[in-house]
Amino acid sequence: MKQIYRWYCKIEVALTATAFFAIIALTFINAVLRAFKHPIVASDDICTLLFAWVSFMGADIAMRRNRLVGMDLLTMHLPIKVQKVLQLIVYIIMGATIILLAVNGYKLAMLNWGRAFNTLPISYGLVTLSLPICGIQMLLTLGIKFYTVLKNFGDDSFTIKMHDPDDEEKEAAEL
């Protein structure tokens, strides 16, 4: 299970980075070609598709690495156990929000399934399908984080901290 999770994390980062680079490259190349009156017609649609996936997979990666926006100015001065309780409450709220977004994203994807891109022979539902699929990924990440805080609740040396490079390895080892 640990090895599968490590590979999952690495694949997600690689796919996200590749898609992000593709958006940048395609946008740049299309801008240059447009100057010569030969634009890539499908460029906008491809970038829309990739951007949806990059955004939500990137959110999962940011959550895993504790890089989401947070305000700890007040909570960092509280006792460790109170910080952990507050973190668990935040995880529950995040989980409920992600479930809501994933369910409605799935409904939206099904509504959009019959709609095609203007320039691509694929369904626009693939764009909106990024929300429920990445929502499931984020719920997995959130579940691991929730479990990690609960498991280490009695250990005052364990604190909720920013990401270090070995966090994915440590989280995988705890599974």
Verbal overview:
The structure is a single chain. This protein has 175 residues and is mainly α. The protein has helices spanning 2-35, 43-64, 80-112, 125-128, 130-151, 167-174. The chain is elongated, with a radius of gyration of 20 Å. The termini are close together. The mean pLDDT is 91.
The number of helices is: 6
- Report how far the terminal alpha carbons are from each other: 7 Å
Structural class: mainly alpha
Overall mean pLDDT stands at 91
Task: Please give a quick description of this structure.
Helices cover 70% and strands 0% of the residues. It has helices at residues 2-35, 43-64, 80-112, 125-128, 130-151, 167-174. The longest helix has 34 residues, at 2-35.
SSE blueprint:
Blueprint: H1 2-35, H2 43-64, H3 80-112, H4 125-128, H5 130-151, H6 167-174
List keywords for this structure.
175 residues, mainly alpha
